[in-house]
Amino acid sequence: MANRTMSHFTKKRKLDKRVQDNLYFDSYSDVTIHEEMIADTVRTSTYRTGILRNSNSIQGKVVLDVGAGTGVLSIFCAQAGARKVYAVEASSIADQAVKIVKHNKMEDIIEVIKGSLETIDLPEQVDVIVSEWMGYALLHESMLNSVLFARDKWLKPGGLILPSKAELYIAPINDLVVEDRLSFWNTVKDQYGVDMSCMSDFAKKCIMNNDITVNLVTVEDVLSHPCKFAELDLYLVTAEQLKSVSGSFKCECFGSSPVNALCVWFTVTFPGGEEKPLVLSTSPFKPETHWKQAVLYLDDPVDVRQDTTVVGDVSMYPSEASSRHVCIHVDYTIGEVKKHSKTFSIPDGYSGEAQQ
To answer: Which GO CC annotations does the UniProt entry carry (predicted)?
Structure first.
């Protein structure tokens, strides 16, 4: 997934695009990120199956792999019968991709091109674009803009994009770990004879802050059926539309519980070729991926009962400080409680997983 090791820069100022890009591409030059992505079997196996299922559209055709990383998707495309694959990668991992391609005796088919998609030149138009561009909460440091640039400049009319669709979901949750952390300060007196209950407000401010927290959410924490609030058709979506991806949601709670957060996740869909479409899901109801889920903590927990509604609007947009960072703004109403608004972002020093 689109990774992020942005710890080099913590100052609250707008980074110029070249600096942003250098930081982003540098984060892909270490083995850890690629190890994590390849080891994510849900991610890598779904891409492999999605590519092989479309082998009828790939055989004898020209493929562009946007953000090729180690080149694994390019090799899958060669295995599916591609005549030529252009594997474009801006970071220094491209040097390793060259070795991997040679090691697999694919150098006659796969050409690794080191450079950013927006600056390189290809000798021909392509029939297929493949990319694993997704970031945390789908859009954090994602490469989707590069995929759209490639689509508009290099894809033949009627060409294939893998995956071809992305969807965003939201649901209210009760994070039990946070509940325990908030109540911890009330337990200190019994254990040590010192009353620290006055720490509770401070703890709440620290924990239930404006950060997008990337965490694994368990099924038991989810308090309603998920609600889809946005869908991106990769054949049609424009870079302009990515400046604000938004939608409404309405969830009905399963039973009595405090709601202390909202949880956001995504799916991407591969056309099925001869078979039904294939979905790669980062839902808490599905097997774990390295993207986990994006957790948005409310300022205050709200108690809900069976059928209490959680309604609102979500907007996702690039941060002013860095266009690769996503912000999420939520207006929400839980039951009879008055409407609240809160804006979230990934913390500056956040270092986590990656994408190719």
So the answer is: nucleus
**DSSP reduced 3-state for 222:** strand
Q: Answer yes or no: is pLDDT of 17 > 90.
A: no
Q: How many residues does the chain have?
A: 356
User: Which superfamily is assigned to 167-345 in CATH?
Assistant: Hnrnp arginine n-methyltransferase1 (2.70.160.11)
Supply 164's token pair: 């071809």
Q: Is it the case that residue 332 has pLDDT exceeding 80?
A: yes
Kindly provide the residue ranges of all beta strands, DSSP E only, lying in the chain, ordered along the sequence.
62-66, 84-89, 110-114, 126-131, 155-162, 165-173, 212-215, 227-233, 245-252, 257-270, 278-281, 293-304, 309-318, 326-334, 340-345
Give the residue among 10, 35, 38, 47 at the shortest CA–CA distance from 325: 10
The b/e string for 10-47 (b: 16+ C-beta within 10 A; e otherwise) is eeeeebeeeebbebbbebbbeeebbebbeebebbbebb
Domain ranges of the chain: 17-164, 167-345
Q: Which residues contact 91 (CB under 8 A, 6 or more apart)?
A: 25, 26, 27, 28, 29
Cα 17 to its chain centre, rounded Å, is 21
* Residues involved in catalysis: 132, 141
pLDDT of residue 247: 98
Nearest to 253 by CA among 221, 215, 297: 221
CB 164 within 8 A of CB 271: yes
Residue 253: strand pairing partners: 224
Rounded to the nearest 10 degrees, what angle do helices 72-79 and 41-53 cross at? 30
How many whole angstroms separate alpha carbon 324 and alpha carbon 135? 10
- Helix ranges (DSSP H) in 126-281: 144-154, 176-184, 188-192, 200-207
Choose among 326, 285, 303: nearest CA to 137: 326
Domain 17-164 has CATH 3.40.50.150: yes
Residue 253: CB atoms within 10 Å = 22
